From TrEMBL:
Species: Cryptosporangium phraense
Coiled-coil stretches: none
Organismal lineage: Bacteria, Bacillati, Actinomycetota, Actinomycetes, Cryptosporangiales
InterPro entries linked: Homeodomain-like_sf, HTH-type_TetR-like_transc_reg, HTH_TetR, MT1864/Rv1816-like_C, Tet_transcr_reg_TetR-rel_C_sf
Domain spans labelled HTH tetR-type: 20-81
DNA-binding region coordinates: 44-63
Pfam family, one: TetR_C_33
Gene3D superfamilies, sorted: Tetracycline Repressor, domain 2
Name used for this protein in its record: TetR/AcrR family transcriptional regulator
GO molecular function: DNA-binding transcription factor activity; transcription cis-regulatory region binding
Keyword terms of this UniProt record: DNA-binding, Transcription, Transcription regulation
């Protein structure tokens, strides 16, 4: 993740995926293979072409190599994560029950509850989309390798995750504005919170038998977001 201006190439790739054209079929095929195998090394241009129902040479009309295809898979995964976080933030008052709906959305405790809902959505995404989550954070594909192969631009890599992070920043800023967080830097603390959530998501998989406290996510979120009275 980083701070960068939107990249025209990235937008073109994302539009292709959503349009359902051949470029989109290629990316969908790669994503399906990654979900099934959990190993990017087993995903080749030939296997992608076979899954997409095209010849391998046909792929070159859309993507230079496998790395550039993986980039779009990662872009789409981050877009899906962003939407999940945004939906959670937007729907929270309606899902919190009748009593909560009677409380103004800017009520201090409502802002805290919204932050927790956004973070819970992040953790839920990691559970629902395990292979997609792994490739987003270098478990299967790394931006460094892609950059070294000249398959992607630095701007494309730096833009990854910015919109999703923005949802967390906004939720934390709401708590700060409501006086229920002592954070003095919403962006920096949102990054710390993201790292904490990522660590918890990873460890829940790596150490599934560990006796995790039932409220470990709430403790983590409250501590890293500097929430008061939670």
């Amino acid at each position: 993740m980083g701070t960068a201006e939107p990249d025209p190439g990235a937008s073109r790739h994302r539009a292709g995926v959503r349009s359902g054209d051949l470029g989109g079929r290629i990316v969908a095929a790669a994503a399906e293979l990654l979900d099934e195998t959990g190993d990017h090394a087993s995903v080749s241009l030939r296997s992608i072409a076979r899954r997409a129902g095209v010849s391998a040479p046909a792929i070159y009309g859309h993507y230079a190599n496998v790395q550039s295809i993986f980039l779009v898979v990662v872009q789409e995964a981050f877009a899906e994560l962003e939407q999940a976080l945004r939906d959670s933030a937007d729907r929270f008052p309606d899902e919190a029950g009748a009593a909560a709906r009677q409380v103004d959305q800017d009520d201090p405790q409502m802002t805290v509850a919204r932050l927790h809902a956004v973070c819970d959505a992040y953790l839920d995404f990691a559970v629902r989309r395990p292979q997609r989550y792994r490739i987003m954070f270098g478990g299967l594909w790394t931006a460094t390798t892609a950059l070294e192969s000249s398959a992607v631009t630095r701007r494309e890599v730096e833009a990854l995750g910015q919109e999703a992070l923005g949802v967390i920043v906004a939720a934390l800023q709401g708590c700060i504005d409501a006086g229920v967080s002592t954070s003095t830097d919403a962006f920096a603390d949102a990054v710390a919170l993201w790292l904490g959530l990522h660590g918890l998501a990873h460890q829940r998989v790596a150490a599934a038998a560990f006796p995790w406290p039932g409220d470990i996510a709430r403790r983590l979120i409250s501590a890293l977001a500097h929430v008061t009275g939670d």
